[in-house]
Amino acid sequence: MDNEITSDKDDENSHYLRVEDLIATGRIPVDVVTGILFESEQEARVILQSNFDPIPLRLKLTKLGCIIDRKETKDGWLFHIHRDAPLSEKERSTQPAKATFRFDDDIITIDVRSFDYPNDLLEVLRFMDTSLDTNYFGVEIKRFSTKFKDVLSQRGWTSVSETKHKDDQGDFLALILEQK
To answer: How far, in Å, CA of 142 to CA of 96, rounded?
Structure first.
């Protein structure tokens, strides 16, 4: 499949993306697509091409009120995605939750404190599935639930360090997770 998507390329509010290219560059497709659709005051649309049907991405966008027209082609899937309605003033002023990353002593740490449960857990799992190339990493999270521990254990991970901290954002746990 080539990188070219055939459509009206003269439309400045259209963004043409390939899921595989995003993943190859270390970007998370759902973050890129939601950024384009929700962080602009202008109406935008995304034309997304993929070798597979990115079901989690489609579900997230549907929950956020997006319209997704999908078509299976001989080269994979083609998705035309746009918001159902323009953003209200309140929606434009609300900052979406975002994970932040940093390196501490050669350990990458993902901070998911801006997410509420269970989205914090899902963000960590998504990071593990799409971006992780190590046997250990750090997590800063509001709470470390039994369900989260169970899911990590099923995936072959364990918490080797848990420390409580407090800063201007409130109480949180700093974890070091290691693959068994």
So the answer is: 17
